[in-house]
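User: structure tokens for Large ribosomal subunit protein uL10, please.
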Amino acid sequence: MLNISPFSFGLIIQQVFDNDSIYNPEVLDITEQALHSRFQEGVRNVASVCLQIGYPTVASVPHSIINGYKRVLESVETEYTFPLAENVKAFLADLMWENCLYSVNHILIER
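Assistant: Done. Predicted tokens:
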């Protein structure tokens, strides 16, 4: 019919030229693990930028919540306060008072 038969063709890369630089052909040997680690590095960079500027993303929200929780706990031990910290301080004071009463009752019952 057309007298076309299949064939294969291959190249052996000797050098790679990019942006006025010459590299060995090994730079093209990219593994799945290398791609995965570079992707994770990019996600970490995006998460840190979003965390610093206060822009919520899937990657930065868990860190934002943890940092907020740490700030509330830090405010319990310091003079610095804000409305949520006041609620936590009141809750902890009530909890400590209940534990104190429980301990006293427990001691009195044992004697």
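User: Anything notable?

Assistant: Helices lie at 32-53, 61-76, 83-110.
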